[in-house]
Design brief:
The protein folds into 5 domains: about 1-10 and about 665-690; about 25-160 and about 620-660, 3-Layer(aba) Sandwich (Rossmann fold); about 165-265, Sandwich (Immunoglobulin-like), CATH 2.60.40; about 265-510, Rossmann fold; about 515-610, Macroglobulin (MG2) domain (Immunoglobulin-like), CATH 2.60.40. The protein has 14 helices and 38 strands. It has about 700 residues and is α+β, with helices and mostly antiparallel strands. A hairpin with a 5-residue loop joins strand 26 (about 445-455) and strand 27. The strands form 10 sheets. The protein has a 9-stranded mixed β-sheet with strand order 18-17-16-19-20-28-27-26-23. A 5-stranded mixed β-sheet has the order 9-15-14-11-12, with no helix packed on it. Strands 29-30-31-35-34 form a 5-stranded antiparallel β-sheet, with no helix packed on it. The two termini are about 15 Å apart.
């Protein structure tokens, strides 16, 4: 047995193979594979003269159809010399839910034809070369090379983008507050060789519309936004569109529709201040008169003690359940003091922001109390670095103006005009400020919306005065001036009320996506696409309003196709009653979420996530003939231009007969050989043990 095993190993080292020859019993075959994907609907294919004397421009699909119907192929099958088979690939599925994820795989049809056919003489691939699924097609071309089967390719479509204006996407939020302005961002790509001035029109299903004039530079993508005000509750369908430009060939992508839900809202706001300065007084008036805001004020007056009156509370909420009711907290010129805040209270504020998606607004003042917060849990939430050498701030002799940054010009927070065109002029007309906080620079990861128009801070550029950031699931705003109340000059409440109303709603937006008495649910991203992972967050409370610590939160998820499944959220390791979970969006459409506290009779909270449809296959994209050229070069074929179809027929007729197909099985590393050797070695070892030879 030892000699037999050694001999078998020596034989395997010579790399023997088991070879079989398959003799085909059919005539030589010529396979024509043609692309039937959505991109073939693009109108940019010029018919050759042999197919149409006028050589008109048609769709790639019609171009392919004309080629397949051409009588030129008859000569290949004349006298029974060859059999011609045609097979489409990358067809669009009939199910609308699957059409968005349908794409083109060039590798699969090539490999399938090799597996099914054993007498293949040549293969012809008619496509635009655009592939977005599967493995790289060059690997399939290499298999054609090993089988010695030439692969010919016929490109369709133009290699340059069609003259077109394409509305790429609309990033609208999922809901808006009735009666408030909403900013709807969009992007348009121009492939025209000239500048285009057009008008974007936003229209709802009742016929109400809003327009905006924009300029599209040649061969560029423009990112812009348009304002919209919802006037009723419930779901509305809106359409964003623009007219067809001269020379544009694809008008179908000039419009997109989306859904938007309008709902009323009551935002709970807590304002904490020390001295009742002008900024505080007018801020309190603005928020108390806002019908969508429920205001509470806590005034630590240094001489008179705790302030009292309508909308005032007597002390800081000491319990989590009392503080958790607030959506936004304004921190004025207050700090750590015997008669102001304490470090445990600062920890509560931070927990509310990070774990329950609340908003926090810093409103520093000339007393410099904000510096005492640097030694508390709120230090990391500050979006700016302060200059300790100037604790009382910097006073201006003349009124200084604010200047919007590029981020500020596009932000809803700083949208004071009725339209985007009016907004820059509104900010230029605002009265200036005489004091600003001692800010050195903004921290990393923040967004600067407005800066000091005249003053610089060392090597860091202009002093940032309106800065935002995110902290956990909440939002932070630092307002470095205390003169927003002066914006009322000549216009009364118009800009002052609008600004603070927008701040309160922006900060509480995520927190109020889906809110009930004992449960609040929010998610990111708001409008996911197929393939995106959605993060679910929930805040649960018991019947007394305290954060839920021992219960469970489950979500019933219903897909657009109607299938349902249960997701149990995992509780965070904190005392804020926060739960988290994730799920994958695998289809476009409306995903319905119903959240409830397990074992509790509290009313469930429902919401809908609208998954955007992003088609893999798009019309108007340029063809990729370089892909087809590489495939034919590897497989020892040739890329044939549509004008040279007659030459292709001649080349195929000149090809030799296909050789018999050989199958080679390498025995030296086959799994059966290895298993047999291991079995023999095991038997040899067992027999030695049984015979006593250790």
């Amino acid at each position: 047995m030892r000699f037999f095993i050694a001999t078998l190993v020596a034989i395997m080292l010579q790399q023997p193979e088991w070879r079989t020859t398959v003799t085909p019993n059919t005539k030589p075959r010529i396979a024509i594979l043609w692309d039937d994907s959505k991109s073939m609907l693009t109108t940019d294919a010029q018919l050759p003269e042999i197919l149409s004397p006028k050589q008109e421009i048609t769709t790639r699909a019609d171009f392919t159809k004309r080629i397949l119907e051409s009588p030129l192929w008859n000569s290949l099958a004349a006298n029974g010399a060859n059999e011609i088979i045609t097979r489409p690939f990358a067809q669009q599925p009939e199910d609308p839910a699957l059409q968005a994820s349908a794409g083109t795989d060039l590798s699969q049809p090539l490999e399938e034809i090799l597996q099914k056919e054993n007498n293949l003489r040549a293969a012809i691939l008619i496509s635009d070369g655009d592939w977005n699924l599967g493995s790289p097609p060059v690997s399939s071309a290499q298999k054609f090379l090993l089988r010695k089967i030439p692969l010919y390719t016929i490109p369709t479509g133009a290699p340059a983008r069609l003259p077109d204006l394409d509305l790429l996407d609309i990033n609208a939020p999922t809901y808006a507050i009735v009666g408030e302005n909403l900013q709807i961002p969009f992007s348009i790509r121009s492939s025209l060789n000239r500048e285009v001035r057009t008008t974007v029109r936003l229209r709802d299903n009742s016929g109400r519309e809003r327009t905006k004039a924009i300029t599209l530079p040649p061969n560029k993508t423009v990112f812009d936004s348009i304002l919209w005000k919802l006037e009723k509750e419930g779901s509305s369908t809106l359409e964003l569109s623009f007219p067809v430009a001269k020379e544009e060939l694809v008008p179908q992508n000039n419009a997109r529709s989306f859904s938007l839900t309008g709902k009323p809202e009551k935002i709970r706001v807590l304002v904490i201040e020390s001295l009742p300065r002008w900024e505080y007084r007018y801020l309190r008036n603005a928020l108390s008169r806002d019908p969508g805001v429920s205001l509470s004020c806590l005034l630590f007056h240094p001489q008179l003690g705790i302030g009292g009156g309508p909308d005032y509370i007597e002390k800081f909420p000491e319990k989590i359940e009392d503080l958790a009711q607030y959506d936004v907290i304004f921190l004025g010129d207050v700090g750590i003091n015997d008669n102001q805040l304490t470090k445990p209270q600062c920890e509560l504020i931070r927990g509310l922001v990070e774990n329950q998606a609340a908003g926090l607004v810093f409103l520093p003042g000339p007393q410099g109390n904000q510096f005492s917060l640097l030694d508390t849990a709120l230090s990391d939430l500050l979006p700016v670095y302060l200059d300790a050498a100037k604790k009382n701030g910097i006073t201006e002799v003349n009124p200084a103006p604010l200047a919007l940054t590029s981020d500020g010009a596009a932000s809803l927070l700083t949208m004071l005009g009725d339209t985007e065109e009016d907004n820059p002029m509104v900010w230029q007309s605002l009265p200036g400020f005489y004091w600003h906080a001692p800010i050195q620079r903004a921290k990393a990861g923040t967004t600067v919306l407005a800066v000091h128009a005249n003053r610089f801070s060392g090597n860091y550029g202009r002093v940032p005065l309106i800065v935002t950031k995110t902290a956990g699931s909440g939002k932070i705003l630092h307002m470095g001036i205390d003169s927003a109340w002066r914006w009322r000059r000549g216009v009364e409440d118009k800009y002052h009320y609008r600004y603070w109303g927008q701040v309160a709603r922006w900060m509480s937006y995520q927190r109020n996506m889906a809110a009930g008495q004992q449960l609040r649910v929010f998610y990111t991203p708001e409008r996911p696409s197929p393939g995106d992972s959605v993060t679910l967050s929930a805040n649960a409370f018991d019947k007394n309003g305290a954060p839920l610590n021992d219960g469970k939160v489950a979500i019933n998820l219903t897909s657009p196709q109607g299938s349902s499944r249960m997701i149990e959220l995992i509780k965070d390791d904190n005392s804020w009653g926060s739960f988290r979970g994730r799920f994958l969006i695998d289809a476009p459409g409306a995903w319905k979420l119903t959240a409830n506290i397990v074992g509790d009779d509290a009313k469930p909270v429902s919401t809908t996530i609208l998954a955007q449809t992003i088609d893999l296959e798009k019309t108007g994209q340029p063809a990729r003939p370089e892909v087809l050229e590489e495939l034919s070069r590897i497989a020892k074929g040739r890329m044939i231009s549509p004008q040279a179809l007659e030459n292709l027929i001649k080349e195929i007729n000149a090809l030799p007969e296909p050789r018999p197909l050989e199958n080679r099985i390498p025995l030296w590393h086959h799994w059966i050989t290895i298993t047999f050797l291991i079995t023999l070695l095991a038997l040899f070892w067992i027999f030695r043990k049984l015979s006593g030879q250790f």
